[in-house]
Every structure is written in structure tokens, then in C-alpha cells.
Amino acid sequence: MLVSRWQAPQIPTKEQVKAMFQAEGYEPFEEIYPAHSEVKDHRHPFDEVRMVVYGEIFFNVAGNRLLLRPGDRIVIPSNTKHSTQVEGENECLCVVANRTF
Q: Domain 2-99 belongs to what architecture?
């Protein structure tokens, strides 16, 4: 797992995040998580890359719980158990891509 925290004062827009992913060779897509939503433990046969555009989301990756805020990015290696949870009254938008190379 690799987490990058956004350090600049201005958070990138959805279009800017997608452009960043495309520049890295990804085909990004959006996922919106409603307030109070939860995705139970699961795994993928590919690396998952995501960046939060707005909202906040908790990730539990192989027993490590962390909070991602706007601009934060996470790479979850293939076959790593993880789950997500949105706590609070606001939905969360993430730009996501799968890395198979």
C-alpha cells in the first residue's frame, strides 16, 4: 500500500485528477460513495489506484485503517484485502483506475 497526501493549498478538480491518471497511462473512472456507505472486505486481481476528489473516506487495508481526504491518493496492491467506509453526512467522490501492468 502506498499513500500520497496532497500538500498543495488548492485541491485538484475531478478533471485535473483524471488528466493526471491519463498522463500515467490509466483509464480513470469515477466512484461516488453515499454518506454512511460501506464496502466490505474484498480483493482484486489487479492494483487499485484512487484519489479522493471530495469528501472523506476511511480505508482498512490489510488491518491498517487510514482516512483519505481530498487530493489524497492510495495504491492498493493486487490481492490485498481492503474495505471502505464513509462516515459523516457527506458523500465521497473518488477517481479510480486499475493497474494490470
A: Sandwich (2.60)
